[in-house]
Amino acid sequence: MKIKILTTVSIVALFLASSGFSQRKLAQTGMKFLQVSLDAKMAGMGDAATALDNLGASGLFSNPASIARQTNFVDATTGQIGWIADIKYYTGGVTFAPENGEYGVIGFSFLYVNYGDLIGTVRNNQGYVETGIFNPNASSFGVTYGKAFNDKFSIGGSVKYAIQNLTSGVVDITETELTKTIYKPNSLVFDFGVLYHTGIQSLDFAASIKNFSKDIQLEREQEKFQLPLTFRVGFAYNLSDMLKLDKNEYSIQLAFDSVVPRDNVEEVDLGVEFKFMNSIALRGGYLTGKEGEYNITTGIGFSKSIEGYTVGLDYAYIPWNSDSFSDIHKFSIHFGI
């Protein structure tokens, strides 16, 4: 009875939080690097990962409740993303499930973003003046905890420290001198999620809130900005149940996410994964609301368990809709013991 009450309260709280911020749309938010999908498996499925369960360390980058049913004692992942404009993302995470997760699963994650070398300029009365080469970057470090209370309900939360190193910015200029200051906005960022097995075959329901934080202010009041808070509701179902297929031979995982971002229109993410011989996976996804960026995602993966050890490699390819930027490539490697 207590678990049912906790389930209801958690889901209602998430929906109330969503209705509170979805009515206050913003044209822009800061620290957008926190909004990028980081795992190649999830990216290949159109980012529709909220209700996917038992993801191991990959769940650190989607719904924190998804790590709660980890079967390995240790699970680890690392990856790289070749983002637009030659921006590079480097990610990593590890999760631990002592006593088969009886006391919950704890995880640690990191993210580093390199924006490359840029030429600084500032406008003056004669036009523009170059201020030199600078290399902005961003990073975050997080701790996540997930707990399965019974065979149906799981809950999880993350706290991350995020910082964006904008190197230096010109705040004043004269004929002989440039006055600079160092901008390093930072904040504690919170994620929260729930995942519920409905009991109807493999149908799962989940909800999450990501990037909850206080407002961040630079120098002046008008320079205050908010983070890209995002609310997701998702469903996942393995079509192999309906078709009565052996999942160890053929698995057809379907996923659906409804997404409410603070700084953009609502979107729908759809994903599918065909898995053969419990080793080779072909993935595809479709996203609405990103017509100016990308709509189609594809991916492939391979995983194998040998004498208690699990290793996997995933790749996602995302064609960008505009010729202004190159296509996106995401790689992830997974290890489990």
Highlighted features:
single chain, 337 residues, mainly beta, Porin, 14-stranded antiparallel beta barrel, two-stranded antiparallel sheet, 3 helices, 50% strand
How is this structure best described in words?
This protein has 337 residues and is mainly beta. It has a single domain, classed as Porin. It contains 3 helices and 18 strands. The protein has helices at residues 2-22, 40-44, 240-243, and strands spanning 74-82, 88-96, 105-114, 118-124, 127-134, 137-148, 153-165, 169-173, 178-181, 186-197, 204-212, 230-238, 250-261, 267-276, 280-287, 296-306, 309-318, 328-336. The strands form 3 sheets. The protein has a 14-stranded antiparallel β-barrel with strand order 1-2-3-6-7-10-11-12-13-14-15-16-17-18. Strand 2 and strand 3 form a beta hairpin. The two termini are 35 Å apart.
Q: Give the class-level CATH name.
A: Mainly Beta
Number of helices: 3
Q: What is the number of beta strands?
A: 18
Strand content: over 45%
Can you summarize the main beta sheet?
Answer: 14 strands, antiparallel, barrel
Helix and strand content put the structural class at: mainly beta
| Second rung of CATH, namely the architecture | Beta Barrel
Uncertain stretches: 16-23
The overall pLDDT, averaged over residues, is: 87
Shape, principal axes of CA atoms: globular
Report the order of strands and helices: HHEEEEEEEEEEEEHEEEEEE
How many domains, in number, for the residues? 1
Distance between the termini: 35 Å
Give the proportion of residues in helices: under 10%
At the fourth level of CATH, the homologous superfamily is: monomeric porin ompg
Task: Predict the CATH topology.
Answer: Porin
